[in-house]
Amino acid sequence: MTNPVISSPHVHGPANVSGVMLRVVYALLPAIAGCVWLFGWGVVVNLLVAITAALVFEAAFLALRRRPIIITLRDGSALVTAVLLAVALPPLAPWWLVTVGVLFAIVFAKQLYGGLGFNPFNPAMAGYVLLLVSFPQEMTNWAAPAALRSGDLGLVQVLLHSLTGALPTGTTMDALSSATALDTLKVQLGMAHTVSEIRGGPIFGLFGGRGWEIVNGLILLGGLWLLWRRVITWHVPAAVLGSLALIATLFHLINPELYAGPLFHLASGGAMLGAFFIATDPVSGATSPRGQLVFGAGMGVLIYVIRTWGGFPDGVAFAVLLMNMAAPAIDYYTQPRVYGHNRG
Amino acid sequence: MDNQANPGTTRQLWRFHGGLHLPDHKALSSGRPITPATLPKRLVLPLQQHIGAPAKALVEVGERVLKGQMIAQADGFVSAPLHAPTSGTIVAIEERPVPHPSGLSAPCIVIDSDGEERWTELHPHAHWAALDAGELRNVIREAGIVGLGGAGFPSFIKLNPGARTEVDTLVLNGAECEPYITCDDRLMRERAGEVIAGARIMRHALHARRVVIGIEDNKPEAHAALRDALARVDRHDIELVQVPTLYPTGGEKQLIKILTGKEVPSQGLPIDINIVCHNVATAAAVHRAVERGEPLISRIVTVTGGGVAQPHNLEVLIGTSVDDLLAQCGGTTPTLSRLVLGGPLMGITLQHRGLPVTKTGNCVLALTPGEFGQHGPVRNCIRCGECARVCPANLLPQQLYWHARAKDFDHAQDYNLFDCIECGCCAYVCPANLPLVQYYRYAKTEIWAQARDKKKSELARERHDFRTERQERDKAERAAKLAKKKAALEESPAADSEEAKKVAIKAAMERAKAKREAAGVEPKNTDNLTADQQRQIDEAEARRATEKKNESANERE
Ligand code: SF4
Ligand code: SF4
After folding, report:
1. Whole-number Å distance between alpha carbons of A195 and B214
2. B319 C-alpha to ligand 2 centroid (Å)
3. Which ligand gives the minimal distance to the CA of B435?
4. Which of A37, A312, B141, B554 shows a CA-CA span of 20 to 30 A to B232?
5. Atom 7 in ligand 1: residue holding the nearest Cα
6. Running along chain B, 557 residues long, what does each successive block of 10 average in pLDDT?
7. Is A8 within 8 Å of B348 when comparing Cβ atoms?
8. Class for the domain spanning B3-116+133-367
9. Model pTM?
10. B49 near B24, Cβ under 8 Å?
11. Is the shortest distance between the CB of B378 and ligand 1 below 6 Å?
């Protein structure tokens, strides 16, 4: 009997790609539940549309590229992309908006680069930015938090709205939606209001957007769980949130009436999602711990800059993509000192 | 981050980067005392069981040999002799399959035992302290002792620091960090006195200032046994240190870092930082060789794993077949799926059961599918960095993989491929199930093979350059002569033409030099190939040849 030569090691640890991806989805479940409670069924419809589209596009492209379909689908990466995008999109988005975003994320940002592992950009954020640039109107039409909505839609009604655009008689889109806190802040600062005036408005809560602070809290919870399960390390989220808080504090101290404080920035928009779920995407991020600190810090600063002086209310997606571009260079300059090589 | 005080011992301990906490499976065999394996009918002894040149056979087919008789002598400096593990008849000297990563055959001496175990005359040195270091080394060399921890480097060389080098610390490696293996554990428990005695001889040969024995803290019995043995001989210059259990603490470079805080320089040796490291089993073998005159003809082998009925620690004659050992352990179970020589992280696959145990074979591991751990499909690298987090050499395994896969060997070397110790940590944690170590081995052997090709062509080019240089010089000299003649005709001073000649020669030589330099850059890390590397290159070439054969076979299909 002659056995094939198999290289060591002969044993393997418990980790696998599918497991990593699934944990990311699990970690988002509390936040998704929070979104349903706060913004209604829209997020569930988004998820349904996004996941279906992602699996279909991924399978179709794998077939075109003659790659194993079932095995690859089971890596879970299409699922994660779909879920992240669905959570990031406005809860009352029409189906085609979600589908176009997923199409771009899966096909253009991932498969055309050679599939999972070869994509230089975070696919979900690439899809998100494409939508933001192409459909700014639809993208800023956010569902109003429960307390501010007049009338509630059931799951079927939301689904119908997503597919056909139809609303039950007597309900208007205006009644269901509102601008986000970040959006409002930006617009009203432009109209020479002060931060404290603006934050007296109904869509603001204790530190951030009303309700958003709870969703962001739940995202933080999920992120901490990922840390605990060692799916991610602390470097990226700490650097993103730390640098964002630092720079926000700095400007807030300079002029509190012009610049919102650090808590507002942490608790609004996509900061938490970006820090724990998007910037931690291994494929498009930096790899070494030092590199991840640089990556995260750069991202935090960019988020603030774009939010404060850029043309869009939130800067998370742009910040991620910009740092993705810088990741190879960061990796190159933050290589660890190899055993037996001189320090410095 | 490097430093870490350890309140348990007086010695400060350090930490190496990464490492793994692995399920150790040592309980399968750690309770089994060392038992002598039954005398096999036939022994197969590869002439090369060590790093360096193969030994040269001293016997002929048909010759009768005695137990302990030298049957092959060291060939060159880096080499080790072989001794008959039992008395009997030489029945063949021929190529046989040997346990090796690439599954090659190599020259072996085959002995049929006569069952009498008649010893040759032995020459013990009870008063070894009276011998000088050189004499001691010679005894150890003649006993055929090589590193028993796995690498198999001839021990006498590592006991020779060179006249001007002081040895600060002799580190004895009793970490035994790989899962399943318990042979050193049992040795330390049952023969602690031999280990200590060997340590003292080694220390004497090295003039080492101190001796530190490092043991992982999952072996308290071994630690206690050594402590008692030390107390008996009343030695205070030998320090016993328990180190935290973490794979690969038993790696030479890692253990040195843990115990001393120093790092062996890249491409260097421990002696470069005044440290020498030997395995505890090697120390015991040194004791036997010196104080009893016994050459290295047996070793302790752990036979274990879910695929073997009764795991054992056997004292095995070198050359015994793996099959014989498995039979003594109650045979294999039906679920056995892979036989490994060595540990689960660094061992090599045994292609069949007939292969012999060599001096470096510390463990026969019979693995069942349930023991492999999770094995999903191989996927693309997702750059998760897990591999880099656990790499004890602090490399970026994902980058090495990337470049090795692309056959971009220059970049692989830029990322310090040759600092990889092939410990397997990276592949163990990789969620994409990539066979990372296999890529590194492949890249290393390819680079060595290329370097050798390059050396060959370089020699050829040098010869060519030399010829061109000479031709250019001749031409210049002729031109100078001509100029001189012309000058003489024109009655100008002769000194000038002498000058012209020199200038012309210099120009010619510079041209040749520039040409050499333009020809290309030297490959890195490839100077001073050891014999083992040389062997690996040969294997790479053999493999390339078979690959080619396979390719053409595939094409035919
Ligand atoms: S562990 Fe595997 S998947 Fe992760 S970075 Fe390393 S090679 Fe890539
Ligand atoms: S095998 Fe090499 S690259 Fe992988 S962890 Fe060990 S030393 Fe690092």
Report:
1. 64
2. 31
3. 1
4. B141
5. B398
6. 44 89 92 92 92 90 93 90 94 90 85 92 89 90 89 87 84 94 95 93 91 94 93 83 93 93 90 92 94 94 93 94 93 90 91 90 92 84 91 92 90 90 94 92 89 80 73 76 68 52 61 49 42 54 51 40
7. yes
8. alpha beta
9. 0.82
10. no
11. no
Please report the ipTM that was assigned to this predicted complex: 0.85
Domain ranges of chain A: 16-173, 178-330
DSSP percent split of chain A into helix, strand, coil, nearest 5: 65, 0, 35
Is B377 within 8 Å of A71 when comparing Cβ atoms? yes
Angle CA B303–B309–B311, to nearest 5: 30
Residues 22-41 of B with CB under 8 A from A: 22
Look at residue B106 and give its three-state secondary structure. strand
Q: For residue A61, how many other CB atoms are within 10 A of its CB?
A: 19
Residues sharing a CB contact under 8 Å with residue B382, sequence separation 6 or more, in sequence order: A17, A20, A77, A116, A117, A282, A283, B431, B432
Residue B345 touches partner A, C-beta closer than 8 Å? yes
Residue A66's pLDDT band (boundaries 50, 70, 90)? confident
**Which among A8, A287, A341 has the least Cβ separation from residue B424?**
A8
- Pairing, β B312-317 against β B3-4: unpaired
Residue with the smallest CA separation from ligand 2 atom 1 is B422
Cβ-defined contact of A340 to B268 (cutoff 8 Å): yes
Q: Say which ligand is closest to the CA of B434.
A: 1
Residues of B in contact with A12 (CB under 8 A): 372-375, 427-428, 433
Starting at the edge strand found earlier in the chain, the sheet holding B56-57 runs B56-57, B70-73, B82-83
Residue A279's closest CA among A246, A245, A315?
A315
Which atom, in ligand 1's list, is nearest to the CA of B382?
3
Q: Check CB contact of B177 with chain A, cutoff 8 Å.
A: no
**Inter-chain residue contact A9 with B346, CB threshold 8 Å:** yes
Q: What is the rounded average pLDDT for all residues in chain A?
A: 84
CB count in 10 Å sphere of residue B305: 27
pLDDT for position B524: 44
Residue-level pLDDT at A228: 94
